[in-house]
Write a structure and sequence with these properties.
The chain has 185 residues and is an alpha+beta fold. It contains 4 helices and 9 strands. The radius of gyration is 15 Å and the shape is globular.
Length: 185
Amino acid sequence: MSIVEHLENHLGPIERRFTPTVEPASRGFQILSFDGSPFPDVVTVATLGLDRHSLPQRGGKDIHQELVMAAKPEDAAEIASVLHAVAAELLEKHVALPRGQVIGPRGPLVPGSSLEAIACLSPWYWPDSFASFQEGSRITVMVWLVPIYPAEAEFIRKAGVDAFEARISEIDPDLLDLRRAPIVS
């Protein structure tokens, strides 16, 4: 099985390939769109090709990653641009994104939203089998990029990602709504 088959097995057929609107336009990866995953009224965008890069982790062992985001269909192009920017920065810095990493705040991620940062989480909105993919001896880890508010970014930095995920479980916000209310203040 290839990484494309892994993505399509979990997300459905590729619906669209986005052309980046930010420079650099190509870094050896693509941004793909999948309709109806993880829920019927949602679009998932994912990188394809990042896994060809071996990225160092804090612990010293290299890892392979692909990135995924999801949102309502009307926000698909915007999150594709955000995903492209994060992926390009990841390759530029040449470092893996660990679970719990916070990127930002850097200003509104998309027009009409006050979400200004991103939390790197395990993709628990999808089946467990989606979280990683093995091809030969290489394991690729899927990293879910979740848009968050500045206060949520600060909460993760102070209390940790486990406390943030516990808060998500308690409140059950729609993490795919880019105009949702904050879960911490």
